[in-house]
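Study this one:
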Amino acid sequence: IRASYGSSPRSPGEIDHSSAKRDEPRVSQKKPALYDKDLPAGLLAGKTIGVLGYGSQGRAQAQNLRDSGLSVEVGLPAGRRSREQAEADGFVVRSARELAERHPILIFLTPDETHRELFEAQIAPALKPGAALCFAHGFSVQYGQVVAPPGIDVFMVAPMGAGPLLRREFQ
């Protein structure tokens, strides 16, 4: 795990969203990266992680998390072809809003251009205080496409390759 920043006092750093404007780059203080060894054992025990999307990155990361012993559910719209694949791979599949209502950690693994609408329409209305939003890279946050409300952590886990490569390396 490599985390880059957060928006609550219990994260590695803070971002001030009070003056955030959409579509403008925001500069945050550089925060130290965290790795597996920096995190307490059992940090995610008993929590279910919601993975939004089941394409190249979503499928690989959902499987890797599950095979690491974590509980994972996948968020996809009804009628999506990848929904059948996620179910065939043994995942519970729900809507993105249902994941936000049920789970404290959501990982955005849909295309960047979907993040804003997905967040505003389905995620934001259902977020609970203390939830965390994870991104595979910082575009949506840096350019104000997703602005987390106070009390919601934001962090990044940057993959070092395409989904199938991540999966092969994990196995």
About this structure: Residues 45 and 158 are 22 Å apart (CA to CA). Helices lie at 56-67, 81-88, 96-102, 112-123, 139-142, 163-170. The chain is about 30% helix and 15% strand.
